[in-house]
Amino acid sequence: RPFDVWGLKQLGEGGLKVCVLAGLDEKHPDRARYKVAGPSVPFLCLLYFSLGYEAFVAAQVEINRTTSRMLNFVEYGKAIRTAMMGTARRNVDLAGVRITVPAGLSDGGDGGGVAGTSWASSDSQCFQDCEEGEQQYFPPPGRPSTGSEYATIGCMNVNSFGGGFWKASNPARFGDGLIDLFRQHCLIGNVVRRGRVYDTEKHPSATFFLPAQLPGVHCQIDGEARFLFHTRQRDARLEFTRVMQIPVVLGPDTQEAPVGSSAGWLVIADMEVPGPDAAFIPATHLDECKALCIRHQFGGFVVIKGRAHFRDDTGERLRAKLAPKIGATTYVRDETAQDVKFSFAESGSALRAFKGRLYEWVCGRLTSELNATRQEVEELQWRSDCYAQGICARSRRAYHCFRRSRHRGMGDGTLITFTLCSQCDSSTGNWGCKGCRRPFCPSCFEKHRGTAPYVRWAYDDVGLLRCLLTSPDLCLDDAQEQLSELQGERPVRLKVFAAGKLVEEEVLESPARACSWLRSYQEGDQSANMQPRTLVTFVSNAMSGRSPQGSSAACVQEEEAAAVAGGSAPMPSIREFLDTAGHSQPDSPVCESFPTS
Question: Which of 234, 371, 412, 591 could make an SS bond with 408 (beta carbons 3.0 to 4.6 A apart)?
Answer without folding.
Answer: 412
